[in-house]
Amino acid sequence: QKEVEQNSGPLSVPEGAIASLNCTYSDRGSQSFFWYRQYSGKSPELIMFIYSNGDKEDGRFTAQLNKASQYVSLLIRDSQPSDSATYLCAVIQGAQKLVFGQGTRLTINP
Amino acid sequence: KAGVTQTPRYLIKTRGQQVTLSCSPISGHRSVSWYQQTPGQGLQFLFEYFSETQRNKGNFPGRFSGRQFSNSRSEMNVSTLELGDSALYLCATSWGASLPDNYGYTFGSGTRLTVV
Fold first, then answer.
1. DSSP 3-state assignment of B25?
2. Looking at chain B, which terminus has fewer C-beta neighbours within 10 angstroms, N or C?
3. CA B31, CA B45: separation in Å to the nearest integer?
């Protein structure tokens, strides 16, 4: 079992719709969870982090964490073509070891 | 403030050679992690350093090594290069703290290594 799993996609969403990205993790002791966005040819950039169960909203982005079920999700409301990128879920294990999923490629269609 | 600086941006090496990559963190960041990114494997964790000590290590052969200096700058070295080492090498830095001050890692632009 992979430490962090994501559906590789591609996920195609029409402009203006909600994009939903999911991630599961295997280490039940994980405490910190991050979503990174990576445009083609660029390095990952942090867009959201969440520590507590429930929802965390930041603009058009909402991160959701359910530790009992060991999943993290990212919702992007009012999706824009500029949101087209690969979204990476990352989990901190132990002493600051940040482990990434394979990433989900998202395409927003105008 | 300055971001994470990785040098060089591009490298072409021959099989069997060795290479050293450098990462200068954001001021105040004490944790430096290194990743290898390839299309097939995604972001693979190499190792993480904090205050000149290796805290975490990934599943890479001993040809991959690293170190961190007292100013938090880090280097990674790959010896006896193989064709399969061709990849984008990224470093990511952070304060190195646990919750609630863990604000995630900031990535550098990476070093694109090509082994021929």
1. coil
2. N
3. 14
- Residues in CB range of B43: below 8 A, 6 or more apart: A44, A88, A100, A103, B35, B36, B37, B90
Task: Give pLDDT, residue A93.
Answer: 82
| Chain A residue numbers touching B106 (CB-CB < 8 A) | 46
Task: Please report, for residues A95, B6, B30, B86, B104, the alpha-carbon distance to residue B49 in angstroms, rounded to integers and kept in the order given.
Answer: 11, 16, 8, 23, 15
* Three state DSSP letters for A28-90: CCCCEEEEEEECCCCCCEEEEEECCCEEEEECCEEEEEECCCCEEEEEECCCCHHHCEEEEEE
Q: What is the distance in angstroms between the Cα of B18 and the nearest Cα belonging to chain A?
A: 24
* B100 pLDDT higher than 60: no
Residue B99 identity: L
- Whether B87 has its CB under 8 Å from any CB of chain A: the answer is no
What pLDDT is attached to residue A9?
84
pLDDT tens-digit series, residues A13-60: 999 999 999 999 999 988 889 999 999 999 999 999 999 999 999 999
Query: Touching check for B111 and chain A: CB below 8 Å?
Result: no
Contact B48/A at CB under 8 A:
yes
Please answer yes or no on whether A49 and B94 come within 8 Å at the CB atom. Answer: no
Whether B25 has its CB under 8 Å from any CB of chain A: the answer is: no
